[in-house]
Design a protein that fits this description.
By secondary structure, the chain is of the alpha+beta class. It contains three helices and six strands; from the N terminus they run E-H-E-E-H-E-H-E-E. Helix 3 links the parallel strand 4 and strand 5.
């Protein structure tokens, strides 16, 4: 299967050796994503909702580059520094996934790469292929 790496343009990708996302076949894995703006500054400092929403917007952009959308997301992993703020993270998550309902894990961690980051999110998308039985929901 063909492999495509998608870069965010971050200098850290080459230094550390990672990609924003990797697509193999119809699967796209999105690396841990934080609320880092184009200029490297934190977006939504001390605002769990704003950081989460911004991260999902970044994830949505890279999925589009790979021919997918949020509807194709099947798994989300959220790493948070303060799980007591789960409602703030959850409110932003719901804006993207209320109807899609992917598998989701939220885990509290001691710290992220910079102390200003409150959340880091990974996602897995599987691009649905048109089925010959589309519309036939036989069990």
């Amino acid at each position: 299967m063909e492999r495509t790496n998608y870069s965010s343009g971050s200098k850290w990708e080459d230094i550390i050796g990672y990609s924003r996302a990797v697509k193999v076949g119809n699967v796209i894995e999105v690396t841990g994503t934080v609320a880092s703006g184009e200029d490297g500054t934190v977006v939504g400092a001390d605002d769990a909702y704003a950081q989460t929403k911004y991260i999902y917007q970044k994830i949505e952009q890279v999925l589009k580059r790979g021919g997918a959308g949020m509807k194709d997301v099947v798994r989300v992993r959220m790493f948070v520094t303060d799980i007591s703020r789960w409602q703030e993270y959850g409110r932003a998550h719901s804006e993207f996934f209320k109807e899609i309902k992917p598998c989701n894990t939220m885990v509290e961690v001691k710290a992220l790469i910079e102390p200003e980051y409150l959340i880091e999110i990974e996602a897995t998308a599987i691009i649905s292929l048109p089925s010959a039985n589309a519309g036939n929901d036989q069990q």
